[in-house]
Amino acid sequence: MNFPFYIARRYLFSKKSTHAINVISGISMVGVAVATMALVVTLSVFNGFHDLVASFFTQMDPQLKVTPVKGKTASADDPLLMKIRQLPEVEVATECLEDQAMAVYGDRQMMVKVKGVEDNFNQLTHISEILEGNGEFELHAADMSYGIPGLGVAFQLGLGYTYEEPLRIFAPRRKGQLDMTNPTDGFVVDELYSPGVVFCMKQGKYDRSYILTSIAFTRHLFDAEGQLTSLELRLKPGSDFDRVKQQMQQIAGNQFHVLDRYEQQDDTFRIMEVEKLIAYVFLTFILVIACFNIIGSLSMLIIDKRNDVVTLRNLGANEHQITRIFLFEGRMISTIGAVVGIFIGLLLCWLQQQFGLVRLGSSEGSFVVDAYPVSVHPWDIVLIFFTVIAVGYLSVWYPVRYFAKRLLK
Fold first, then answer.
1. Each residue's pLDDT tens digit in the chain (409 positions)?
2. DSSP H helical segments within 177-258, as ranges?
């Protein structure tokens, strides 16, 4: 049996001559447990929001998106793009062209992003699952182009699910000079008709700014025949996603970016990761402060056990062994606090997942979800455990050696 560990365990659970030492040791353990629990719950809530946002984006975002490195557009028949879309793992490929324009309906107007896609866009994404209204996903009929606005766009323009009059879209001409005597001649004007649906992703980035239509409409509107802003892809089930993406990037070289869903929303997810990191750092500082209680309890324990130290030295214990006794004492407090804190944190996360104890608002339907989303990631738990152990071990190392040396003089 490890002699220092055996003595440290006896010291931790036995009564001391001064009752305050037991109280301070208990407070130290509780402090570490509470800080650990806060880390588990906070990081799990950030994971919950991360997964929630990711689930919304996947309704419209493709698995892979190929965009030009330079400029807004690229030729649709570019040899590199043709080679990418002909890979055997590609199941659906859709050419897309989007740009900003002004939408006018009646006496209302607003700037929107008009995204033109091919007819197979509903096979590429889950757009059909987020449509609301009496119609279905349609982009054109005969020589008419349909426009599917986001719910926020429809609200601001007063469209409703079905708009009776055509929606006029204005885009500046890209060629020629502007005639100041006739400013309206500087715009290309076209009309969109209602298919009887709007889309609702519950994300302002899309719902309040996007209108979906056919790519033929946008190519005419933006004078970009044979051009695209992105090639959007879906792979066949069972494909090795990472390998195929890497292969596509090798084909694209430095001409095109190949982006997965998270990279397509890189700004949003980077902000969430930074927020999560900041929360982790701040809670770790709180953990460091909680570990100062351990130093206090060990200092008092060393003073209380001065006579025991003399006895142990007479029995043959050397200075290193006696120092390790008190080091083990501090480490056991940290470890027990970490285990208890992780257990309580996981329990609270489970209760939140099952019963939604902490609500986002007082009235249902005010938010996308009624309660704070929680998602426990195993690697976060591993990180938290080793963080607590490292902070606890480092916080007691110098004080114990310092006080033990003074006591053993």
1. 476 766 677 666 666 555 566 777 788 899 999 999 999 999 999 999 988 888 777 678 899 999 999 999 999 999 999 999 999 999 999 999 999 999 999 999 999 999 999 999 999 988 988 999 988 999 999 889 999 999 999 999 999 889 989 999 999 887 655 555 555 667 899 999 999 999 998 888 899 999 999 999 999 999 999 999 999 999 999 999 999 999 999 999 999 999 998 899 888 889 999 999 999 999 999 999 888 888 877 777 777 777 776 677 777 777 777 778 778 888 888 999 999 999 999 999 999 999 888 988 765 556 678 889 999 999 999 999 999 999 988 888 877 777 666 665 5
2. 204-207, 215-221, 241-252
Collapse the DSSP code of 103 into the 3-class scheme (helix H, G, I; strand E, B; otherwise coil) and give the result.
strand
**Integer Cα distance of 296 and 27 in angstroms:** 11
Smallest Cα–Cα separation from 64: which of 26, 96, 16, 101? Answer: 96
d(CA 389, CA 339): 10
Exposed e or buried b per residue across 6-37, where buried means at least 16 C-beta atoms within 10 angstroms of its C-beta: ebbeebbeeebeeeebbebbeebbebbbbbbb
Q: What is the DSSP string of 112-181?
A: EEEEEE-TTHHHHS-GGGGEEESS----EETTEEB-EEBHHHHHHHT--SS-SSPEEEEEE-SSS---TT
Calpha distance 239→326 (Å, rounded): 56
| Alpha-carbon torsion, ordered 251, 256, 260, 266, to 10 deg | 150
Q: Which residues, in sequence order, are bridge partners of residue 232?
A: 65, 94
Q: How far apart are the C-alpha atoms of 48 and 376, rounded to whole Å?
A: 8
Nearest to 219 by CA among 75, 67, 80, 62: 75
Q: How far apart are CA 409 and CA 402, in angstroms?
A: 11
For residue 304, the number of C-alpha atoms closer than 13 Å in the C-beta half-sphere is: 18
The packing angle between helices 319-355 and 266-304, to 10°, is 140
Q: What is the pTM of this model?
A: 0.77
Distance CA 58, CA 158 (A): 27
